[in-house]
Amino acid sequence: MWLHIDAAYAGSSFICPEFRHLLNGVEFADSFNFNPHKWLLVNFDCSAMWVKKRADLIGAFKLDPLYLKHSHQDSGLITDYRHWQLPLGRRFRSLKMWFVFRMYGVKGLQAHIRKHVRLAHEFECLVRQDPRFEICAEVTLGLVCFRLK
Prior knowledge:
Blueprint: E1 4-6, E2 31-34, H1 36-39, E3 48-51, H2 54-61, H3 93-129, E4 133-135, E5 146-148
Parallel strand pairs: 1-2
Antiparallel strand pairs: 2-3, 4-5
């Protein structure tokens, strides 16, 4: 069985040590994905994925027509990313992520995430003050679940 963690939104919050408890059990995952374009100030679309054993992923998507074969493919000297997903070409998304990391740094990105979490708690307080609404679940990161009474 393949255990995949899709942390599309919440994954960005793990840049802050105080939210890493939400990662408990991640060591059992075979793959982990998150989308920096959802909370790390990176332009759409950008996704980051980690795999425990890349051979399993490559085996699922591998495509080797004769016209794409090369002399180094079985040497282990290079990583041929065309076997990691269906498209044979892809945009250079990592560059825009690099620019965000370079401009804001870890501390700047942590401050951004923490500000949004604070705003969620402020919004929770406002909702609790209005007798027409109720909070449905504990506020987690930037997510506030509420409903009309």
